[in-house]
Amino acid sequence: MTVIYNRVALIGLGLIASSMAHALRQFGLAAEVVGHARSAETRAIAMDIGLCDRVYATAAEAVQGADLVVLAVPVGAMGDLAAEIGPHLKPGATITDVGSVKGAVVEAMAPHMPAGVHFIPGHPIAGTEHSGPRSGFASLFNNRWWLLTPLDGADPAAVARLRALCEGMGANVDEMDVAHHDLVLAVTSHTPHLIAYTMVGVADHMRRVSNSEVIKYSAGGFRDLTRIAASDPVMWRDVFLTNKDAVLDILGRFTEELFVLQRAIRMGDGEHLHAYFTRTRAIRRGIIEAGQDTAAPDFGRVAQNGAKGG
Ligand code: NAP
Known about the structure:
2 domains, alpha/beta, 12 helices, 6-phosphogluconate dehydrogenase C-terminal fold, binds NADP nicotinamide-adenine-dinucleotide phosphate, six-stranded parallel β-sheet
């Protein structure tokens, strides 16, 4: 138990921030955790369940005197919040975010960061389809990746300190370039979410034709997609609006592949299908070997395994 930052201010008190609050306390990484969320209800819940030592009605008040500020709000809200808190940040403080997209967040936040403050963008690849202050749990980040995307000229000591905090919460930390992050996440998370939303939408239309059969006989694949498609609509709207180019690039490639598979099915080309599915199966094996999921069938996905991430 080593205190890494004396006072941590969490701005936004949903799934990610509440998980951080639990983990910071459990591992003794912060002497004090304060917070802000826009609604009085969320702030009251945060006090009620002991997420924060204090909550503030405004973000500007919450960040005063904080050694680490974490923006944990939807990507589209980061810029306005950065503008609000910029003048109130303590000199020498570190400010990070947990947004699922990095390019747009850097563009929106960087102009508001005063000199003498360390702005180090980040993204924990961990999450569930649940949101709000009650949805967090301390083990969310355990053995998950936390990507940091330090900007040119970032202070190595400040980056190392933030890395130590993420590692203290159980995460594995990697550093990468902002644009590379957005492309990788478009492949591993953003486009798959769009596909899940689409497939569940298709089934919803079908349901009108076949009554409740889609729900009744939902096999593992569809059930898993409905879990992903139950993710927070505001968060995901913002992800697609802000990681537009990378998602459109991957979606274009996806559509091309889909047409090739569609043709193989039409032409009865079993060899093509078999070879394709053999290749994709190897990717799944790689994910299990890398410790990022288990081989156990778990189509309902117990929330606590933190198997999903934006
Ligand atoms: P969440 O559970 O929906 O919580 C969002 C929080 O932000 C709520 O406390 C909300 O306050 C607050 N908020 C929203 N707009 C605000 C504003 N304009 N000013 C102040 N507070 C505001 O969200 P989350 O899942 O923790 O996601 C937070 C961030 O983490 C997002 O950027 C997301 O991309 C990223 N992320 C999410 C996941 C995931 O799987 N969920 C994974 C990795 C990263 P109220 O409760 O008062 O409305």
